[in-house]
Design goal:
binds zinc ion, globular, alpha+beta, Nuclear Transport Factor 2, Chain: A, 6-stranded antiparallel sheet
């Protein structure tokens, strides 16, 4: 135990008193652990602390004026503080003001101006001065694993998985969204994931000196889908593009995406009844329906040429894309088309072509998606990618194997957390 000398102890008490208001009394233990008589400290100028939030459409000058500090020269402050732009502070930002008892205005303000920077402002005789303080973040890798339960939902499974406590709820949802991105070409998380499937994810999280935790990125994953193991190891392209390869060094990228809507945009609980909601009878359904909010962006599953973009009967607003000599895709019930999407336009894989709606024969917003080969609709759910992905370039093969070995070692770690280098 560290012994605290008497003057230090009094200073500590004074600080506590200043923080909590005037005239507070504290009972404290002496360094020998014995209870001593409560000391009464009367602070001459207790400091009141209060927080205020920048409202939508409000300027910093307005907020500070409201708090009796309309004398801040924001232009001078912006020049003095690097990376601080007073007109770029987001609404919702919280300012903590400190004001001495009996004074009409605050004398100090603390505000978080960036995820890694705090600004301290102080009133001086020559106006307001400011300094910044860096907030350190450290990166940790961790393992997140579980089994898909009877509901068949990977989003449900994350709340029960080990590693669950390592991320706030919103960040766990983002982790699943990022995992779906990794498997964008091989697994449709809405339909392919089944009860009993297992997942093990090596990911990174960031922790600030203030104790905040954020999901960072997926490093590696292993999903056993219907008994089929699908491994993914991150090995980004030299230009920084995110890339994942399997255990044989084959890219997870393919000619077609498994689904035209990002998994993070799919509504849970969307009814997949084959009973047509308007026509009220079961009709041959030639496609797959994705429930998503009105206006959710729709991606072309592959590169190709738009052959139709316009109204077409029960399809409502329809986009059709030809990808090669035999394969076309259709996207129906759209609320609108993305800019430049018209017959003859070229599209890249993943490019936004339109937005979810309920045009044509649809009662609720959803995307009706068809994959057609040789002019006939095929079931895209059953159609697994035919061709393997591109291999790691020969010149980078050794680097990939080294990185894969490192990721496997991290993943196999019994402990949930490891500190990154
Ligand atoms: Zn449909």
């Amino acid at each position: 135990m560290k012994l605290i000398s008497k003057p230090e102890r009094n200073a500590l008490l004074l600080t506590l008193t200043l923080l909590s208001g005037a005239g507070a009394t504290f009972a404290y233990r002496s360094s020998t652990g014995l209870r001593v008589a409560p000391a009464v400290v009367v602070a001459s100028a207790p400091i009141l602390q209060y927080a205020d939030t920048l409202k939508r459409g409000e300027t910093l000058a307005q907020l500070f004026y409201r708090r009796g500090a309309g004398d801040v020269n924001w232009g001078a402050l912006a020049n003095a503080v690097r990376n601080f732009n007073p007109s770029r502070v987001n609404s919702g930002t919280v300012f903590t003001f400190a004001q001495r008892h009996g004074e009409p205005a605050p004398h100090a303000v603390v505000v978080r101006v960036a995820y890694d920077m705090r600004m301290h402002m102080e009133r001086t005789t020559g106006g307001w001065a400011a300094r910044t303080e860096r907030i350190a973040w450290r990166t940790e890798s961790f393992v997140f694993s579980g089994v898909i339960r009877a509901s068949g939902s990977i989003s449900d499974a994350i709340t029960e998985s080990t590693g669950n406590e390592l991320l706030p709820r919103q960040d766990r949802i983002e982790l699943v969204g990022s995992l779906a991105d990794v498997y964008d070409w091989t697994l449709d998380f809405t339909r392919d994931i089944q009860p009993g499937d297992q997942f093990r994810v090596l990911a990174e999280r960031m922790i600030s000196a203030d104790g905040e935790v954020r999901f960072s990125r997926v490093l590696a994953a292993e999903i056993v889908n219907a008994g089929r193991p699908l491994a993914a190891y991150r090995f980004d392209a030299p230009d920084g593009r995110q890339e994942f390869f399997d255990e044989n060094g084959r890219s997870l990228r393919r000619e077609f995406l498994r689904a035209p809507i990002e998994f993070r945009r799919i509504s849970s609980g969307f009814s997949r009844s084959r009973m047509h909601p308007i026509l009220r009878y079961r009709r041959a359904h030639l496609g797959v329906d994705f429930g998503a909010a009105y206006g959710a962006p729709i991606r072309s599953v592959g590169r190709g040429t738009v052959t139709h973009a316009g109204r077409q009967g029960g399809y409502g607003n329809l986009v059709e894309i030809r990808h090669n000599g035999t394969t076309t895709t259709r996207y129906a019930h759209l609320s609108g088309y993305a800019r430049g999407i018209r017959a003859g336009a070229h599209v890249e894989q993943g490019e936004i072509i339109g937005y979810v709606g309920a045009s044509g024969l649809a009662t609720a917003p959803h995307l009706h998606y068809e994959l057609r080969v040789g002019g006939r609709a095929v079931n895209p759910v059953r159609r697994q990618p035919m061709t393997p992905g591109q291999p790691v370039p020969a010149g980078r093969r050794d680097d990939f194997e080294r990185e894969r070995g490192r990721l496997i070692e991290l993943m196999a770690a019994q402990q949930g957390i490891r500190i990154a280098d």
